[in-house]
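@channel sequence for tomorrow's demo:
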Amino acid sequence: MSAEGEGEDTTPAAEPEEEKAPVEEAPAPKPPPLTFDQRTELLAKRAGTWASLLDFSSVPRSKAGWILRAVITVVVFAFLWRRVVGVTHTLIATKPSPTIPTEEIEDYRFRLPEHTRRDIFRDLATVEVAERARAIAANTWGGHLWSREDDRGHYERVAARGAAQKYHCSLSQVYLVLDEGIRERWPGPDGNPLPATTPPHSIRTTSW
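structure tokens (generated this afternoon):
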């Protein structure tokens, strides 16, 4: 054997390892669908969890509970504050209306000149006479006088509000003028004064 052969590595070269193909993992099996009873039980548990957050008799056990408790408290307090302010503001801020004197200067009463008072009375008297005629013609309330008069009062209130708007005065002034016209026996549209009496109260025994 030559000297050159002694220095050479006679170990056979290692063959390259074959690359192993990745092993595909089997997909995890899907859980079976929930039954109707299981879904109902799950929803009940979730509802119970949310309902416990609204239990103000106990201390919240989570951050979400504290946040929900704070939000509800603020909303309720704001609602109550608006209600209290809305009711009390009118009582505190509204100034009492000035008194309406019965006598001021000549030709004036209730802060209205006589011609305006007579116009107001004529408007109200016209409505009253027309309503009385309509009630008789239609035989309203089966002829029950007190019910018929009570019904007429509704139309009188509507006419009084219209007169207050038409003549730019208060409703109190309108009723004072109506009282004055009845007391002074001012003529209505038919030339007769309005009646100063009302039928006595009597309860109806039947309904219409």
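heads up for whoever presents: The radius of gyration is 47 Å.
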